[in-house]
Specification:
- A hairpin with a 6-residue loop joins strand 2 and strand 3 (243-247).
- The protein has helices at residues 2-139, 143-191, 211-217, 222-231, 251-267, 272-300, 308-316, 327-345, 349-358, 373-383, 388-396, 406-420, 429-444, 472-489; strands spanning 202-206, 234-236, 243-247, 321-322, 325-326, 449-455, 460-465, 497-502.
- The protein contains 14 helices and 8 strands.
- It has 511 residues and is mostly helical.
- The longest helix has 138 residues, at 2-139.
Length: 511
């Protein structure tokens, strides 16, 4: 019995040892299999990484090739555009040469007519001398009496003929002047297409929905206070659906506030820290835009060598308006007009364009500095090393200072042409009506005037005179007197045409 137990116990010990050995062998086999699988996974991952790297390198090369092709295409387009602009400039130069030849021919005709008038006057003097001698012989009068009688007779005849001649010369000069003015203004408008906006002190920002108003105001108004403090403008949030009104006298601040608010609305994150970040970024963008606008204006006007501060002041004019007319576009237009007129008259084109571009430079800072925009502009130009002639042209373009150069006169004329041409400016209804009423009252104040009507938006006044008190030649004098009184008493843009009409009617009845 005991032997059997020993055998059983020995068998158990041997079985346990064999089982332990078998389990160890199985475990080692599993570990070896796991290591093999891990190596295969690492090898596959390395192969995939290499493939992905190669694919990304190919994509980067394709993108670089595409960008290079786009740059080449843009370069070709720009070269084509430059060639087209060069052809246009050549055509315009040829047109200007033809117009200069026409002007020279007209000047020759005027010199010929002046010579004819001089010969006519000399013939009148000869006839007068002959009549004086004949009268002394026939009448038996003394020299003084004959002279007095002859002078009276000749004076009456000459007055009549001179009035007729003056009328003819005036009509001819007006026709030539109007034709020439149309050519100059038409050419200038063709070369300068100016945009005009309405003068305003408010801007409107559209909202995606009315819920955005609450987000703009913020908790206890902190967002709107932050925006108003940083930009220096007022935000008006009222019952207007899906809109916020930005109010302020400074157009640059309004533009910064408008762009900042639009960015905040688009981004959706509206809180004081974000508002400060967006406003500062927008202010830098507007400063860059101001500089670019000034450089663009100088380039379009062909004005070079301006002081950087003057370029920035020009850019600020992009955000200023006068009677609804954008001041920067008006300055560019004046530069073109002055340059064209200077070319027609044989004056300094470069000087005329430079003075025309800078003539309203004071309007960029007239709300920051004491004085009129004329004084401020002249001082700014002088401070930034512009020549005394340029400074004088700026100071004299509203008649505040005497002209030192002929080009300065052209600046004043170009400024008036740009301001008065149709569509350039707007005028308040009240001011417009008062100006027309005063114009009619000036005409009615003259003796012999029956009726006066202001027409064509105040650019012409037609006057009916009493035929029994004003004859045909007195009507010419009345027109001149009315013109002088209008020039001395009335402020108006451009010019006013005065037309005096004398009408005689004969009425009878058949019975």
């Amino acid at each position: 019995m005991s032997e059997n137990l020993i055998l059983i116990f020995a068998a158990l010990i041997v079985g346990s040892g064999i089982g332990f050995i078998i389990r160890k062998v199985i475990a080692e086999a599993k570990i070896s299999s796991a290591e093999t699988a891990a190596k295969k996974i690492l090898e596959e991952a390395n192969r995939e990484a290499v493939a992905i790297k190669r694919e990304k390198q190919l994509e980067a090369k394709e993108e670089a090739l595409r960008l290079r092709n786009e740059l080449d295409r843009e370069g070709r387009e720009r070269r084509s555009e430059l060639q087209r602009l060069e052809r246009r400039l050549i055509q315009k130069e040829e047109g200007l040469d033809r117009k200069i030849n026409n002007i020279e021919n007209k000047e020759e005709d005027l010199r010929r007519k002046e010579a004819e008038n001089k010969a006519f006057k000399e013939r009148l003097d000869q006839l007068q001398q002959q009549q004086l001698v004949e009268l002394e012989r026939v009448s038996g009068m003394n020299s003084e009496e004959a002279k007095e009688l002859l002078l009276q007779r000749v004076r009456n005849e000459i007055d009549h003929e001179m009035q007729v001649m003056v009328k003819d010369i005036e009509n001819q000069a007006k026709a030539e002047g109007e034709k020439k003015a149309r050519e100059i203004v038409t050419l200038a408008i063709q070369r300068c297409a100016a945009d005009h906006v309405t003068e305003s002190t408010v801007s409107v920002v559209s909202l995606p929905n009315d819920e955005m108003k609450g987000r703009i105001i913020g908790r206890e108004g902190r967002n709107i206070r932050a925006l108003e403090t940083l930009t220096g403008i007022d935000l008006i949030i009222d019952d207007t659906p899906e809109a916020v009104i930005i109010s302020g006298f400074d157009p640059i601040r309004r533009e910064i506030a408008r762009l900042s608010l639009e960015k905040l609305i688009s981004d959706g994150r509206i809180h004081p820290a974000r508002i400060e970040e967006v406003v500062e970024k927008t202010r830098k963008e507007v400063e860059v835009r101001i500089k670019e606008e000034g450089e663009r204006a100088a380039f379009e006007s062909r004005v070079h060598g301006l002081h950087p501060e003057l370029v920035i002041l020009l850019g600020k004019l992009r955000f200023r308006t006068s009677y609804g007319q954008n001041v920067l576009q008006h300055s560019i237009e004046v530069a073109h007009l002055a340059g064209i007129m200077a070319a027609e008259l044989g004056l300094d084109i470069t000087f005329a364009k430079r003075a025309g571009l800078l003539h309203d430079i004071g309007k960029a800072i007239d709300h920051e500095t004491e004085g009129s925009h004329v004084q401020i502009g002249a001082e700014s130009a002088k401070r930034h090393n512009e020549t005394p002639a340029i400074v004088n042209a700026i100071a004299a373009h509203h008649g505040d200072t005497e002209f030192n150069t002929l080009e300065a006169v052209l600046i004043q004329s170009a400024d008036a042409i740009s301001a008065v041409r149709p569509g350039a400016r707007r005028e308040s209804l009240e001011t417009y009506i008062k100006r027309l009423e005063k114009l009619e009252n000036i005409a009615d104040s003259f003796d012999g005037v029956e009726k006066a009507y202001a027409i064509h938006a105040g650019r012409e006044i037609r006057i009916m005179v009493k035929p029994d008190r004003i004859d045909d030649y007195s009507a010419i004098q009345v027109a001149r007197d009315i013109v002088k009184k209008i020039e001395s008493e009335l402020e108006y843009p451009g010019q006013i045409k005065v037309t005096v009409i004398r009408e005689t009617r004969a009425v009878d009845y058949a019975k």
